[in-house]
Amino acid sequence: MHIAEGYLPPAHAAAWAVASAPFVVHGVRALTREVRSNPESTLLLGASGAFTFVLSALKIPSVTGSCSHPTGTGLGAILFRPPIMAVLGTITLLFQALLLAHGGLTTLGANVFSMAVVGPWAGFGTYWLLRRSGASLMVAVFFGAFVADLSTYCVTSVQLALAFPDPGSGIPGALAKFGSIFALTQIPLAVSEGLLTVLVMRLLTQSSKAELLRLGVLSKLTGKGGSKGAEAGAAGEEKETVTR
Question: Where is the signal peptide (predicted)?
Fold first, then answer.
């Protein structure tokens, strides 16, 4: 990830674009509702998009036709939920394809599906399950960002294996080849991204605590310096936030 311009067969590129489109359309609606209902969230939305743009622009050559890098989608998925992150991720990938020659327009659908759809959903699901099971905010944030990053590359490996099966062992053999090559660089990158996301979240809990309470990030378990009363008071708002 990102898969380079023109690298996928046209039929594969079109199929991934079709698969990604419903998630992006749903995300546009969710983003529109968020901005209209809470205009004050615009700054944090922009920061989440910028975080994704900067991290995913750092690339390390990996598999022919692709590269390794952090994704930055875990933070936005935790703050605003995966549908909105699908839009922020798509905008990021589009600008990188046009301005940085990073990824491409023909492979945009495939890159969106792996980095802006599967990554955020996997990361948020991990974060949500850990919080529900009693994990602290920062532990949940770390593993949410870690899984969002790593799952993106698992999907990219599948995409490449489907497009270029191994002549002898077919798709399973190609998947093992692509996955093992990605793992060399991506596991350390996922750990680093998890730690960086924890650092950013710590800063946000100090500078934007009210906003995090509104978004439901600090309402599931008592945060540092928080109270049970604040958690109970935010319960109704949290239910609405989780379903966005």
Answer: none
- Taking only the tens place, the pLDDT of each residue in 111-165 is 999 999 999 999 999 999 999 999 999 999 999 999 999 999 999 999 999 999 9
- Domains of the chain (ranges plus CATH)? 10-215 (1.10.1760.20)
Cis, bond preceding 2 (omega within 30 deg of 0): yes
**Which pLDDT band holds residue 229 (cuts at 50, 70, 90)?**
very low
- The structure's pTM equals 0.84
Helix and strand tally (H, E) in the chain?
Answer: 11, 2
DSSP, res 58: -
* Residue 223 tokens, joined: 């945060």
CA-CA distance, 163 to 83, in Å (whole number)?
27
**Do the beta carbons of residue 117 and residue 152 sit within 8 Å?**
no
Q: Taking Cα atoms as reference points, which of 81, 72, 155 lies closest to residue 114?
A: 155
Q: 3: alpha, beta or left, given left = phi > 0 and alpha = psi -120 to 50? A: beta
Dist. CA 143–CA 129, nearest whole Å: 10
The dihedral of CA 205, 209, 214, 216: what is its sign?
Answer: positive
